[in-house]
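User: Please write out a complete single-protein record containing the residue sequence and its fold in C-alpha cell form, without commentary.

AI:
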Amino acid sequence: MSATTAGAIAPPAAVVPNRAILTVCAMTATLMQILDSTIANVALPYMQGSLNTTMDQVTWVLTSYVIASAIMTAPVGWLAQRYGRKNLFIASLVGFTLTSMLCGAAQSLEQMVVFRVFQGMCGAALAPLSQAVMLDIYPFEKRAQAMAIFGMGIMVGPIMGPTLGGYLTDAFDWRYVFYVNLPFGILATVGLAIFMPKTPVKPDLRFDWTGFAVLALGIGALQMALDRGQTEDWFNSREIMVEFVLAGLGLYLFIVHMLTAERPFVPIGLFKDRNFAAAMTMMFCTGTIMMASSALLAPFLQNLAGYPVSTAGAAMAPRGLGTMAAMLIASRLGGKWVDQRKLMAFGLISLGFTLHAMSNWTPDMSESQMVTTLIVQGFCMGFIFNPMTVVAFATLPTQYRADAAAMQNLSRNIGAAIGVSVTSFTLARTSQASHADMAANITPFNRIFQHHDAVGHFLNPATGPGAGVLEAIIQRQSQIIGFSNDYRMMSLVVIPPLLLLLLMRRPGTVPPR
C-alpha cells in the first residue's frame, strides 16, 4: 500500500463549518501563486535597470520561479500526508509571503534569483492544496460549483497578471509587484489557521528520494531546455542537447521506478483511473493553449497593433470575463442536466474555431472584433476546464486527491512551458522564412520598382530611405504571417483532447470512496 492510501482526509463536507471563509482563503492562496507566474513579466525592463543586468539574464527572474515550482509540485501529495494538509498549507503560504517580500527587497540579480527559487518552492503546493481543500469541504452534488470557483483562479490568474503588474509598476514601483502579496498572504494564513479543519499527521511515512530525484532531474532539465532553446539555437547547441537527454533519462527512470517501487511517492493507482489519466492529458493540451495564446497576444497588440503596454494588458481582460461566465454556467448545466463530456466537446470545438479566427487577425482589426473573439474564447475555456476537473476527480478514490491535484497542476505547468516555447520558436522561424521569401522578390527585375512614379521612387531599394521603408514593411508582414501560423497551429491542439473524450466515463451520482 502506498503512502497516500492512508491519506489525510478532511471531515465530511456536510459538517465543515465556515465553508465560505475557507473558499475565500483557498482561492486567495491560489490567485497569489498563479498571478506571480506572470505578474513580473511587464516589470522585467524596470528590474533590468534596477538590478544592473542584461535582458537575457533578467529572464531568470521568471524561469527560476517556474523551474522551482514545477519540481516541487510533484511531492505535494506525500508532504500533505506526512505533515498534514493544514500544516503544509499554512507553512507554504507563510513561506510564499515572506519570500515575496524578499524578492521585492532584492538588490542584485543573484539575490532575486535565489529568492524566486524559494518563492517557487513554497508556492508549488498552494494550487494543489487549494483544489484538494475545495473538494473536501464541498459535497459531491456541489463539486461542479466548487471547481468553477477554483477554475476561475487558475484560468483568470494568468490573464490578470500582466494587467495588474503593469498598473503596479506604472503607479508605484516594480517592487510592489511582490509587495502586493503581503496583505493577502496574512489574511489567507489567519483564515486557514482559524477555520480549516485539522488533518491527521503520519510521521512514519518514508520519502521516496529516488523517485523524486529522477523526476526533478527530468522536469528541471526539460524546463531549462525549453527556456533557453530559442536563444541557444536549439539542437545546434551542445547545452540544449545535453538538457534534452537528461530530461528524457530522468522521466524514463521516474516511470520505471513508479512501476517497480514498493512505495513510490506518486502512486500508480492515479493512472489506473481512466478518467483522471485522460483529464491529465487534456489539462496538458489546454494549458498549452491557455498560456501560449496569452504570451502571443501581448506582443501582437504592442508591437504590431501599436497598443500601449497598459492598454494591451487591459485588452486581455475580456477573455477572463468570458471564462468566469462560462464556468458559472457549466457548473449549473453539468451533472444531472448535461453530460460533462458534451460540455467539454462544445468548448473544445468552439475554442478551435476562435483560434482559427485569430489566425486571420491583422493589426488593422477593429477593437470590437478583437474583444468579441476574446470573450468567446474565454467562454470556451470555461466550458472545458470546469467539466474536465469534475470528471477527473469523479471516479478517483478520495485518498488520491492531493496527489491527483498536484499531478494535474504539474501537467498544466509543463504544457504551458512547452506551449510558450514552441510558439515562440515557430514565430521566430516562420517570420524569418517569410522575411526571406518576400525579400527575394526585391530585385531590379520587379516591375514595381521599374516605374518612376511616386510609389516606385518611395520604395526604391537602391536608395537608403527606400530600402529602410521596404525593410520595415517586410518585417511587419513577416511577423503577421508568423502570428497567423502560430494561432492556426494551436487550433489543431484541440483535436487530441476531443479524441480523449471517447475514453472518459460519465460520472455517476455517488462520489468515490
Remarks:
- Residues 264 and 448 are 69 Å apart (CA to CA).
- The radius of gyration is 24 Å.
